[in-house]
Amino acid sequence: MCFELMNLVELYIGSNNIVNLPKDLLFSNTNLETLYLGSNKLVSLPEGLFSNNRKLQILGLENNMLVSLAEGLFTFNKDLRFVYLESNNLKRLPKDLYLNTNLITLDMNRNQFICCLMIDFKDWASNQTQLTYEGTCTVLNTTIDIHSFNTTTCIIPGWSPWIKSSCSTTCGDGVIISTRTCDNPPPSDDGLKCENVQHHAIVQRKDQLDNKSGKNSIN
């Protein structure tokens, strides 16, 4: 199913109990400026759904069951001005929704946003002069107005202590591998874990394990 109307400027298909949308639904609607999908039963939107709608300015997605919006969904929608996301189940926003667009109004009320997943948005929003946005987010099991959220309360993931392996040989030159992971402290409340590992290799004699000389490398 697709709407093969190239000159279509406005499309209202709200309140139709729509559960999912085909990726090519709007492919031919290159002049679309207003799209209303509110009051359906959408849980997700396919990647590339809006890729041909480069003139899109108004998007209504309120009163659905959206759990997430894929990164890259709004890459080509630089003219987007008004976005309505209220009454969904969103926890975070895709960066391209705000970094690639010129938003004037963003309604995020009645979602499940996690404050510490909204740091980039808050940093961006603080530099906008014409943006109006509304919504709440949760931090430390408390729901607050997103305007009052202080990003400095979020714990920035750090490195765990180095953990040394045993020497790879029992005598002579060997290699000790030290490893640390980016999980200190572990994430909580749906926070993200930075997936990274560092290895530190020290080439030295078995009887000099406490000697800090040797060839070092970090990967």
From TrEMBL:
<dbReference type="InterPro" id="IPR003591">
    <property type="entry name" value="Leu-rich_rpt_typical-subtyp"/>
</dbReference>
<dbReference type="InterPro" id="IPR001611">
    <property type="entry name" value="Leu-rich_rpt"/>
</dbReference>
<dbReference type="Pfam" id="PF13855">
    <property type="entry name" value="LRR_8"/>
</dbReference>
<dbReference type="InterPro" id="IPR032675">
    <property type="entry name" value="LRR_dom_sf"/>
</dbReference>
<protein>
    <recommendedName>
        <fullName>LRRNT domain-containing protein</fullName>
    </recommendedName>
</protein>
<dbReference type="InterPro" id="IPR036383">
    <property type="entry name" value="TSP1_rpt_sf"/>
</dbReference>
<keyword id="KW-0433">Leucine-rich repeat</keyword>
<dbReference type="Pfam" id="PF00090">
    <property type="entry name" value="TSP_1"/>
</dbReference>
<keyword id="KW-0677">Repeat</keyword>
<dbReference type="InterPro" id="IPR000884">
    <property type="entry name" value="TSP1_rpt"/>
</dbReference>
